[in-house]
Design brief:
Elements lengths: L3 E10 L4 H11 L3 E10 L3 E10 L2 H12 L6 E6 L1 H5 L16 H7 L4 H10 L4 H4 L5 E6 L12 H19 L2 E6 L5 H11 L5 E4 L6 H12 L4 E3 H21 L7 E5 L3 H13 L3 E5 L3 H9 L3 E2 L3 H7 L2 E4 L17 E4 L9 H6 L4 E4 L9 H10 L7 H13 L13 H21 L1
Parallel strand pairs: 5-6, 5-7, 7-8, 9-10, 9-12, 10-11, 12-13, 13-14
Antiparallel strand pairs: 1-3, 1-4, 2-3
Helix pairs in contact: 1-2, 7-15, 8-9, 10-11, 10-16, 15-17, 16-17
The chain binds 1,4-dihydronicotinamide adenine dinucleotide, pyruvic acid and magnesium ion.
């Protein structure tokens, strides 16, 4: 496991080279350094806040001991948990977009003024998208059955993930994501519940709903609701994975449609990745899963299966894994020149550095090849186009937009670039408009 993030506050004499001593000590203990913030720079001493990812508490103790062993005035002041701190009080809030300072404001925003807007919407329901926030709101619906790769830990335990998705929708594309935590995973009840609440939203994002029930839930909601519905773990992930595959093929001079691709794990993410690759025109897509029913679904969509993990690893140029099983791919299974996308969160099937060391030409994990690169722009584009569905042409347009926005040497662009989400949103909107015209 590699997901214990701690902030180590270190004071050292203000002398060139001391930061290097500290980072070397952390590196020698295999701590993974993130942000380094300068807290105080005085004539005598300097204080820095160093974010370090460790495997577990025991590993953290080793990192701390290594820093303390430097001596010569290097001291640890505190070890804090900034991840937990960032979650105090939650990460989202419903805020107003209008100030109420006078009686006039009150009467405009609330009664009696508001009544005339209600009556206008009653007469012309389509006006709701101009006079309410509905068109900018996305319900983030989970039943808590496949929270990241942590399994069925329940909706409430999954709330930090849903709040995270909401933060990303807000900050990257200006949409309001509202978590809806279900206490049922029965498809009939989920579909009924979402149908009963859908009219308050412009779109529905299904999140971390496990397979196979996620397939039925999404298909039924898509068929029965007049607004876009997308299970992000399926199609958001598939879009970003297709973009990563296209970029890797471009860099290695491989024709993606002729590459042999292996998908390990055919759940929500894996089956959608297979479907997306086939829709793009990749002919040789193989899969494996420990569940026979998952293999049957693979065959139904036109994918081919392999008998064992070893066979898949041996035969495929590009390997993608979404099993939730940390360390499933062993370095000795990696073939020279292979492209490996080990996408399980929070811990990949193989660490990218390990895969590269074992001979892979490209390797990435679920931190970089992550649906955050796609879903904000996909939802923004679909809502801007007033699309009723998110279709394959819209998803492929999103993947191609991501590819067009990738700089040389990158496998996938950073989601921190606001221009990326804009480019994806425009591509999706244009694809939706084209589909409308052709109908
Ligand atoms: N990087 C990204 O953007 C995303 C990553 N993921 C990650 O993918 C993983 C799976 O997520 P979902 O598809 O939603 O879960 P899921 O539960 O729907 O699918 C997991 C599948 O893997 C199969 N599996 C488990 N162990 C296996 C093994 N040893 N060999 C072969 N197959 C095996 C299971 O039978 C199941 O079909 C999670 O860790 C999640 O964090 C999911 C969505 C997005
Ligand atoms: C990124 C994401 O949606 C997942 O790991 O489930
Ligand atoms: Mg997810």
């Amino acid at each position: 496991m590699q997901h214990l993030i701690r902030n180590i506050i270190v004071e050292s004499p203000s002398k060139v080279g001391n930061l290097g001593l500290v980072t070397s000590a952390i590196g020698a203990a295999e701590g993974d350094i993130g942000d380094i913030k300068l807290i105080k720079s005085g004539p005598l001493t300097t204080v820095r806040d160093i974010s370090v990812t460790c495997r577990d508490e025991v590993h953290l103790e080793t990192v701390i001991a290594n820093i303390e062993a430097i001596g010569n005035g290097v001291e640890i002041h505190a070890v804090t948990d900034d991840v937990l701190k960032a979650h105090e009080g939650g990460k989202i809030a419903m805020k107003s977009t209008i100030d109420v300072r006078s009686l006039g404001d009150l009467q405009r925003v609330y009664t009696p003024g508001v009544a005339s807007v209600c009556l206008e919407i009653e007469k012309h329901p389509e006006q709701a998208k101009y006079f309410t926030s509905i068109g900018k709101s996305v319900a983030i619906v989970t039943d808590g059955t496949a929270i990241l790769g942590l399994g069925n830990i329940g909706s409430v335990a999954g709330m930090p993930v849903m709040e995270g998705k909401s933060v990303l929708l807000d900050q990257f594309v200006g949409l309001s994501g509202v978590p809806i935590l279900l206490d049922t995973s029965d498809p009939d009840q989920v579909v009924e519940t979402v149908k009963h609440i859908h009219q308050g939203f412009g779109a529905i994002l299904l999140e971390d709903i496990g397979s196979p029930h996620c397939f039925e839930i999404e298909e039924r909601l898509k068929a029965e609701l007049p607004i876009p519905v997308m299970h992000d773990d399926q199609h958001g992930t598939a879009v970003v994975t297709l973009a990563a595959v296209l970029n890797a093929c471009r860099a290695t001079g491989v024709d993606p449609t002729k590459a042999t691709v292996g998908q390990i794990g055919l759940g929500a993410a894996g089956l959608a990745i297979v479907r997306m690759l086939l829709a793009y025109g990749v002919k040789d897509v193989y899969g494996i899963d420990r569940q026979p029913a998952a293999i049957e679904r693979l065959h139904n969509y036109g994918g081919k299966s392999k008998e064992t993990l070893d066979e898949l690893m041996n035969d495929c140029d590009i390997v993608i894994a979404t099993t939730g099983v940390e360390g499933l791919i062993k370095p000795e299974m990696v073939r020279k020149g292979q492209i490996i996308l080990a996408l399980s969160n929070p811990n990949p099937e193989i660490q990218p550095a390990e895969a590269i060391k074992a001979g892979a030409a490209f390797a990435a994990d679920g931190r970089s090849v992550n649906n955050v690169v796609g879903f904000p722009g996909i939802f923004r584009g679909a809502l801007d186009a007033e699309a009723k569905q998110i279709t394959y042409p819209m998803l492929i347009a999103a993947a191609e937009a991501i590819v067009s926005h990738t700089r040389r040497g990158e496998l996938i662009p950073t989601p921190l670039d606001p221009a990326l989400h804009l480019v994806v949103a425009r591509a999706v909107e244009e694809a939706a408009a084209k589909e409308k015209q052709s109908q």
